[in-house]
Amino acid sequence: MPVVTLRSTPYLLLQTETGNRYLPLVGSNCWTVGRSDDNNFVLPNRWISRNHAMFQCTEAGDFYLIDLGSRNGTFVNGRRVTVPVTLRNADRITFGQTELEFYCPSKDQKADVRQVSEHETMTSTLHVRRLMSVMVVDIRDFTVLTRQLDEKVLSALIGTWFRHMGDIIGKSGSWVDKYIGDAVMAIWFHDPQGLSKAEALKILQAVSDTNKMTMALSEEYTLPFPLRIGTGINTGYAMVGNTGSGSRPDYTAIGDTVNAAFRLESATKQIGLNIALGEDTYRYISALGNTEEVFKQYTVNLKGYDAPTTTYAGNYEDIDKFLQASS
Questions:
Q1: pLDDT tens column, 130-189
Q2: 103 φ, ψ to 5°?
Q3: What is the pTM of this model?
Q4: What is the model's pLDDT at position 127?
Q5: Of 194, 211, 206, 188, nearest to 282 (Cα)?
Q6: What whole-number distance in Å separates Cα of residue 97 and Cα of residue 48?
Q7: In the Cβ-directed half-sphere of 112, how many Cα atoms lie within 13 Å?
Q8: Which value, to the nearest 10 degrees, does the dihedral of the CA atoms of residues 120, 32, 208, 152 take?
Q9: What's the rounded mean pLDDT across residues 249-273?
Q10: Angle between the 316-326 and 197-220 helix axes, to the nearest 10 degrees?
């Protein structure tokens, strides 16, 4: 029996023939919508895809709506969603032919998400310092792509890419912490002793799988140019916060380790390669052996950093060869 107060809790309103149905957005930072039973909100309608869309709440309290490559589309106030969009109070959302309304208290009014149900325990907001690897993957030339591609095709392409990214990262023992426009951010937590060889291999495998998935989508859709991605990975300590309860991880990380991962991804454009690693990431990965054949040392100027930064960069093809030799 829910004990949330809808006046102070973000929720979705679904009007049905038997009355209004309220779907509180509490207990996690990510909720999926679809026809399949494995979704948080199940909408048994033939116009709804098995995995149709996703809601995500940031640490700042903003809500994003992400289409997951649905067949019949996701719309906000009548406009089709092609990239993650920020939701506003009273926005009208349409999944296929199912309409809902999104309601969220103002930021001055704190949402009561502490008590989710009488069977769940209350979790206080925690901030702890953890060793982690942060991976940022960005779609190259995305702005150009949006100008040249039909809106429906773009929505299906990017939504499918997001959905497959979530599957790949989940398989690697992590989760997608953020969907940001045309990019995703994933986090792996490590013991204080550092990355094990198994963890390092999982991260490299996730990189390889992401590139192969992107190439496959590029061939599946008729595009003006091949879909390409850049990757930045950084390892270090950062503060992480646990802002809710429930079975899903709802950590988010802040600090220089996270910022540097984004800057390293941008640096791949400077040096003309696919992937750039922070020094500590490379140190752990080099324990796998023969990584000097994959990653070369470069000095780059990261935006917002006064001093030049050392990075180790390479191409996806070389990672594939390395993984094949390591198996």
A1: 899 999 999 999 989 988 998 888 888 998 999 999 999 999 988 888 888 789 999 999
A2: -130, 135
A3: 0.75
A4: 61
A5: 194
A6: 8
A7: 10
A8: -170
A9: 86
A10: 130
Q: Does 115 or 85 have the greater pLDDT score?
A: 85
Q: Are 65 and 80 in contact (CB under 8 A)?
A: no
Structure tokens at 39: 């979704």
Alpha carbon distance 121, 113 (integer Å):
12
End-to-end, the C-alpha distance of the chain in Å comes to: 50
Structure tokens at 43: 């909408």
Dihedral angle computed from the Cα positions of residues 286, 289, 290 and 292, in that order, rounded to the nearest 10 degrees: 10
Using CA atoms, how far apart are residues 266 and 13, in angstroms rounded to an integer? 40
Residue 17 has pLDDT above 70, yes or no: yes
- Percentage of residues of the chain with pLDDT beyond 70: 87
Residue 159 token pair: 């939504």
Mean pLDDT of 16-36: 89
At 99 the pLDDT is 95
